[in-house]
Prior knowledge:
This protein has helices spanning 32-44, 61-73, 98-111, 131-143, 157-169, 202-211, 235-240, 247-263, 267-276, 291-299, 307-313; strands at residues 7-8, 17-18, 21-23, 49-51, 80-85, 117-122, 147-153, 178-179, 215-217, 282-286. The chain is of the alpha/beta class. The chain has a domain at 7-179: TIM Barrel (Alpha-Beta Barrel), CATH 3.20.20.
Amino acid sequence: MASMIPHGRIEGVGKPVSRLVLGCGSFRPDDMTRAEAVLDAFLAAGGTALDTAHIYGRNGASERAVGQWIASRGCRDRIVLITKGAHHDAEWRPRVRPEVIDAELGESLERLATDQIDLYLLHRDDPAAPVGPILECLNGHVAAGRMRAFGGSNWSPRRLDEANAHAAAHGLQGMAASSPHLALAVARDAAHMAHSIVSNDAEALAWYGRTRMPLLAWTSQAQGFFSDRARPGDPESARRFRRYDAEDNWERRRRSGDVAARLGVTPTQVALAWVLGQPGEIFPIIGPGSVDHLHEAIGALDVRLSPEERAWLNLES
């Protein structure tokens, strides 16, 4: 197994934040054997940060499973608990409103069996909504002790700047972190996801490098696209990985295999190392399906890519 997971810092959290964040979206109370095995191994490897959300799983299954595990292990003080709320509705209409935040935060706290979230992320944004009422709502929950810090998931740099400028001008706590999609494979999604994807967005990546805003990269391993499950030209692979099924991504995958062979690692580790090496404060969210997959992801921490390899992997040379 690779070295222990190192830690970074997110303003306001007050605890060491592991550089790999464990995505818990697939965990549920009726299948705790797998969840416990992965969570236990993550904790033993130095992992501290767990990512879930109000909408993950039926009736909050993910949050309930995470809360059940934390209670059973008595490790709440060691865990950086991250959850998200105020996702769009089924018709993709924005719901980033104080009353939605209030209600969903309350439900998340109950499911997670805790009285405080370490980092609360607004799951989506509504660019037409004024940032003032949103920030006042979140600051109220910080003052009440229901959360330590907050940020935005799928918020654009422009909106994050807008929110933090407003916070600075009004003496409020601002956005402490951001969670967009960042992976070596560039996702193809509908227009409503445009601000969620920063892969190959040079301007956005430069902003993260310049501001040092902690970036929690969701789907950092491209849903397994760099594993043996993805095969170019295979209809099942095209269906499973439709978000990444494009000629340029298949070439990235081929090149990751070449680099992996030279370094004696796996293509998935190369792809994750590419994310970890982005400028700025990077915290990839990983979603291992097993302890073996977790150990493979942790191994990426020991992979060192040269600037030339990084550019070549991303088709820049």
